[in-house]
Amino acid sequence: MDPRKRPDLSDKAGFQMLGRGRGLQPVEMTVGRSRGLLLSTEGLGLGRARGFLPPGDIPPGRGVLPPSTAPGRGLLVHPDEVGVGRARGLLLPSAEPKVGVSRGAVLPRLGQQYEQKHMLEMPPGSAGDTAAPRGEEVSAPPCGQGSTLVSMFRGMGVTSWGRGTPAVGRESGHDGEVKVQDFPVGLATAMQGAGHRGDSMGRGSSLSAQMIVGLGRAALPQLGMGRGQALLSSLPSGQIKPVCPTSDPQRTPLSPPHPEGGLKVVPMTQDLPVPLSSALPKKEMTMESVCSPINKAGTKGTPITIGSNHIVVSCKNEAVYQYHVTFTPNVESMTMRFGMMKDHRSTTGEVVAFDGSILYLPVKLKDEVLLKSSRRTDNQEIEIKIKMTKILPPNCDLCIPFYNVVFRRVMKIIGLKQVARNHYDPESAVVLEKQRLQVWPGYATAIKHTDGGLYLSVEVTHKVLQNDSVLDLMNMLYKQSKENFQDVCTKELVGAIVITRYNNRTYRIDSIEWNKSPNDSFTLMNGTKTTFLEYYSKNYGITIKEMNQPLLLHRPKERSKPGGKQIITGEILLVPELSFLTGIPEKMRKDMRAMKELTSHINVSSEQHTNSIKQLLKNISSSPESVKELSRWGLEIGSEILIVQGRTLPLETICLQTSCFATGTDVSWSREVVRDASINSVPLNIWAIFYPSRCADQAEELVSTFKKVAGPIGLRMARPIRVELRDERTETYVKSIHSHLTSEPNLQLVVCIMVGNRDDLYIAIKKLCCVKSPIPSQAINIRTISQQMKLKSVAQKILLQVNSKLGGELWTVNIPLKNLMVVGVDVHHDTSKSHQSVMGFVASVNSSLTRWYSRVTFQTPTEELIHGFRVCLLAALQKYHEINHNLPEKIVVYRDGVSDGQLKMVEQYEIPQLIKCFETFPSYEPKLVFIVVQKRISTNLYSWTSNNFGTPSPGTVLDHTLTQKDWVDFYLMAHPIRQGCGLPTHYIALYNTANLSPDHLQRLTFKMCHLYWNWPGVIRVPAPCKYAHKLAFLSGQYLHSEPAIQLSDKLFFL
Amino acid sequence: MNPIFTPSLHSQRHQFVVDFVRKNKPRKVADLGCGECRLLKQLKFQRSIELLVGVDINGAKIKKNMLRLAPLSTDYLQPTFDQLHIDLYQGSVTQRDARLTGFDLVTSIELIEHLILPDLELFSSVVFGYMRPANVIISTPNSEFNKLFPGLTGFRHSDHKFEWNRSEFRSWALKVCLDYGYEAEFTGVGEAPQELQESVGFCSQIGVFRRMNVLPNRFEEEVFFYTLVYSVNYPTLCDNNTFIEVLLSEVVYRAEQMKNSWMEKTTGGTNWGLPHSQTEQQKRSACTERLDCPGGGEELTESLWTTKQEESGTLNRFVVVPLAALCSFCPKIAELSGSLSNLRRLLMDQPQVKLSQDGFSLLVKCEEQEPEQIDSDEEEDEEDAPAVQCSHQTEPEEDWEANI
Lengths: 1054, 404
Fold this sequence. Notes:
The structure holds 2 protein chains of 2 kinds.
Chain A (H helix, E strand, L loop, with lengths): L4 H7 L2 H5 L16 H5 L6 H7 L20 E3 L14 E3 L16 H12 L25 H17 L21 H18 L7 H8 L26 E2 L21 E2 L34 E7 L1 E6 L4 E9 L5 H10 L1 H4 L4 E2 L3 E4 L6 E7 L6 E12 L7 H14 L3 E3 L2 E3 L5 E3 L4 E14 L2 E17 H11 L4 H9 L3 E4 L5 E3 L2 E3 L7 E3 L5 E3 H9 L10 E4 L4 E2 L6 E2 L3 E3 L4 E4 L3 H4 L2 H11 L3 H16 L2 H8 L3 E3 L4 E7 L4 E3 L4 E3 L7 H6 L11 E6 L3 H18 L7 E5 L4 H14 L5 E6 L4 H14 L4 E5 L6 H19 L5 E2 L6 E9 L8 E8 L7 E8 L5 H20 L5 E7 L6 H15 L9 E8 L6 E5 L2 E3 L5 E3 L9 E6 L11 E8 L5 H11 L14 H17 L15
Parallel strand pairs in A: 3-4, 31-32, 31-33, 33-34, 36-39, 39-40
Antiparallel strand pairs in A: 1-2, 5-28, 5-41, 6-16, 6-27, 7-9, 7-11, 8-9, 10-11, 12-13, 13-15, 14-15, 15-16, 16-26, 17-18, 17-26, 19-22, 20-21, 22-25, 23-24, 28-43, 29-30, 29-35, 36-37, 37-38, 40-45, 41-42, 43-44, 44-45
Helix pairs in contact in A: 1-4, 5-6, 7-8, 11-18, 12-13, 20-23, 21-22, 24-25
Chain B lengths: L8 H16 L3 E5 L5 H6 L7 E6 L2 H7 L19 E6 L14 E5 L7 H15 L3 E7 L24 H15 L1 E8 L7 H4 L3 E8 L15 E7 L6 H28 L8 H17 L4 H7 L1 E7 L2 E9 H7 L1 H7 L2 H9 L5 E2 L5 E5 L33 H5 L1
Parallel strand pairs in B: 1-2, 1-4, 2-3, 4-5
Antiparallel strand pairs in B: 3-8, 5-7, 6-7, 9-10, 10-12, 11-12
Helix pairs in contact in B: 4-5, 7-8, 7-11, 10-11
């Protein structure tokens, strides 16, 4: 099972309640032939069990039924409670009762996926109405179906666990005494669960308390053995008979099995000659197999040799062995478990990865190892059982997390300092004196498992740190603005990341506690109270000098410690004097000169980039300690930067109104686009220009230049209404614009000339023109039009931009797909978290992809993005229909802003919801392609010619080796690189019913990168994504509300 | 173990050492049997310590934990004059090593009970006879306390070779004192319940030894039995390079600040192409800075002037910032450099700064704020100025963002 899933499981609150199953004697259970039961001899909490239990991992599923009593059996999975609405169950009628063992070849994750889908398609007659104790309830299939069934079953097991449904099953203690009182909470939950199930099965009443209780426990064993009996009702097959597990006659009344629908109940007796696990044919553990990759390679274009910032990692070990560790009696404390395992290093060896219950070793132990430790708190003797569960290939995904731990240590050994997740070298820091900044060179490294195998990805990064403490910064801000100091301070600091003096941690500032000071006290873990002053002095020898400073507050994300135990909550207070800001200060971002200096340090060329990587590799290989550390797990880092075969996609042809031209190698067409007429220009008959009186000359100059350059572009333009403002106050602008909008209802465009970067004025104008009185608007900084020399080209660009804003069409490329709609989606998050996130949505509504429909939705933190998404898509489809009188046959969605961890969620939740949206239209089933666009990735591409690394040319695509195993994906570097090194964009096709081939996906994407009208060249992402980004940014950053719907058919936000 | 101590017993022992260090401020401290380096990690925050050494027989254990002692990232941001060097050795306390001599404090926490008696003899002679630190702190279990652990039979740990009661420890300690010229005080951590404190004493007994006399240097052969496993220097201003770097960064930054506020005052700041609100803000800040700058305030603005120098054919304007004004403007510079002449001497050879002929003023170049020469063809969105601030950006995507 995917290790990433584990936190999911353990996060659910419900199961912990179920957790205290106790007093059951599994060995003696009626159907107690499962080895899994042995593991759980004494009340392993269900909660804990879920924390570590990877149900999907059990290679051979086995279920056994006693011959005499169970003529029918079922493999049952109870319905999910979450509302995804996939009730499923699988019924396996069997004519001959027998003890069966089914063994499944273990398929990695992919297999599971498939199986889940498979389940979904089960007809409701046999699926959905049944409930099973738990996912692992496997009855032996009679014939050779075994492997599929078991693995299918496993797939489901995974899902049902993930959803945190209470497990229901039945079992009986041999003495018939089940301690109900031990499960006060668990009982309630289970009852609920049973009730729920009861609805669907019509049989809830038959579950007795004891049964339910027993069920709660069903979750334990690592080996998913069938336990208890299937509880069936209203199943179509007459062969199926619910089996009452009760052995003790006393208990029978307590758990009265109700024969319903002709079902017969056969009470089971305990003394059945059921062989214990030892009697089962012993399975041979075999190495997990790796499935073959999906075909995702294209062929179009020119092959080229490229490099990437990856280094081959080879595994010298034959395998990694996975063991399950159980403590009997149960040991709750993780620390204690770690401690006990530590005492047995003589058995396990020094090299271990242990999370509290799953143990990975590079060595093979006996199948089952029994150890003894004594619990230090009460001297209770604890039996530790280490049981091998899996033999993993050394490049298995499950191993990646601890390989990364090992590698992080290597980075420390070679002397790098960790800040947040990356490692830096402060000794090679570059100091930017004027900005009070230090730039630390460093690396972001990760070991990844891609289609090509195991790789170390090395990103050359830089950390920007401020020389001054937060307190120094506060003092500076105070000097600058005494009156609204707190506001200024909050604005500057909230959202910033600080690093502290006394540990290596980073914290995000969530707010400032003005009423607190270092003299305030807080409670330590052990319950004693101390002031911040004392605490830092005592523990770190730090004397806080300034008593009169507020404290910074950090609210940690809720997360659980390994093992799913304590949830870290509460707030962390930091002392400004002891905190340093990291990252580029907001103020500096606006300072071009400073940014230029900074980028000259951090935008390194491919050559510098590769040299840094080589240096790192050298440092590692020349440090015996590092090499040894890696070899503990049999890892060996290659010495060369990865060289692979990529392709350069064919150049595209840009079409204007009448002329067409092929793009050059610089993929820029800034000259052509101002020489020839755009596809469609909106005549500008009535427009107004607003300017302060001191800009009168420039305004006049601009208008006359407009007149000169408008002709070639194909834009007809009347003389504007000129409005000279008496001052430069925001209010003056707004009032004047507003009065002209009212007096001239046919006004098409508002142009404002403003002096300096005035955010307040810009916001006011945009709010007025985008929300209150919708009209396309263009703001122009006086500086950009002050130079005579450049005025012509500036005016040309402004006109192109204005034409786009008015709904004109500039250029296009040929896309050989008919009835196509391309959608771009991006999300803007406010850094200070004080505003809502905004989703920008842009969809093409004509065949040449030159008309765009745009919408925005604001998300509340609890709301899923998909709700807004659906509304937008529906509106776009309606608009498409309005224009074309039909609906698009193919819809390609480019979705930006999805991280790797969210892919599954998007695939399983977002996409189905989108598809559902098509039902709004009668018999409408368009083909959908859903492509996730990832800009912030760690993969770099270099060109590799004559033994030199450089920047690859635009259109370079890589669709193998570094691609991800589970998806059809590719890296495309569409844009030309002028500075820094080649950072491609990663595209993942999550869904593709249009069956676009890899070639088509790649080329369509490349074509879409040509269509951003604010830039006569190729950009990094498909144009609709960039439009969506611009729109979301404008709405989230400046408007703080949805733009007026009247503007939705224009690119007003450019 | 029961009773459980709060805070835990081992942290109480460590706290005892830390408190001792805070009180006596030793400069060179060694921890024998440093194990997981926990005590060292606490001690490294004690500013008085300049040399911190750990010794353990288990080299693997040291290696595993040594990285805890590496400098923190922030140690590089604002280095102080405090110095710290940490060395970790793999070696046995029964062997001599010349690098362990001359210490102010040697601690040996819960170590001696792991030694067999002949080794303990060697230990005494190595620590008290050879290393001869000014102070020694030795802690060991007090066996009298064991009866308070229910169910405990034998020793507290299977590797213990002995566990002494209070008088046994005392008699050993006094013999050591007699042999090597130390005096000892006895205390402990981990208190028994009130009524039993008298009869059983502390859970861990501690002896604090003080050297009575400094013996003349015996000319012994220098022996090196320990293997150096880890060695690290903390960034400090005592390091000349670091010092110059910090000083320069301060000088350049402050001089630039002074220049800017002076320029704004004299030229009114209008031709800077800065937005109005910002300029006003800066003007205001210039005023407040003057008020906040005692002494140097008023003459500050008067003492700046411009000068022109011909340099390789081009005329450069400089603002002259007297070092004295700089020192009064920024006390940190004064503090770092000590005196004006020292500052002058320090800055003299630095290529990053330009001094006037007499060397008592800093020449800060006036960079004309001529608009950037940008090829507008390579710009995106430049018209929509407020939306895009970095108009020099040639590529639409802000590449550098992804790299940070």
